[in-house]
Amino acid sequence: MSLPVKLILASNSPRRKEILGGLKIPFTIKVKEVPEDFPEDLQREQIAEFLAAHKADAYLSDLAEDEAVITADTIVWLKDSVLNKPENLEEARQMLFRLSGNMHEVVTGVSIATKNHQEVFHDVSKVYFKTLTEQEIDFYLENFRPLDKAGAYGVQEFIGMIGIERIEGSYFNVMGLPIHLVYERLKALGVVPY
């Protein structure tokens, strides 16, 4: 299949790779280490969009005329504060206790950029957690990898399976990529042939 635009996913997230792969269009993965710092005055979707665009900046000078790069960043927003990736297991434990019994928002910012154009957008999903027990949290921390996930959990892993009572919005957004929105943008770029 020959497409007018060669697609690059700039992420080492296995979840984003799996989701984008579901579209059955060819893409390559390129990863650069980009600091995930953001101005302190940013709120909610501003943080996610800023980080997605910031990640894209690292790739723009290397892009060929026929390439497009997708970058994304997912944050967890709880009671007017952001929960990023935890630095250690104790911070992960504290995050899960804060999420327990509460509704939080998962916001994913996405950038799709070519040499001459960049579009940045976001999606929001509301996630409702039951009250988690200390034993459930400890089991999750001992058996899974919370340190590479915003809010210290993966929706598709144990704590998401047993803890999430309902989601309002896109499940795939909570996983890390609002594929329904990405698909529409890729169609407009001519990357999706169907």
From TrEMBL:
One GO cellular component term noted in the UniProt record for this chain: cytoplasm
Cofactors (names): a divalent metal cation
Any one GO MF annotation of this record: nucleoside triphosphate diphosphatase activity
Subcellular location: Cytoplasm
Keyword vocabulary terms for this entry: Cytoplasm, Hydrolase, Nucleotide metabolism
Family of this protein: Belongs to the Maf family. YhdE subfamily.
Protein name: dTTP/UTP pyrophosphatase
Naturally occurring in which organism (per UniProt): Adhaeribacter soli
Name of the encoding gene: maf
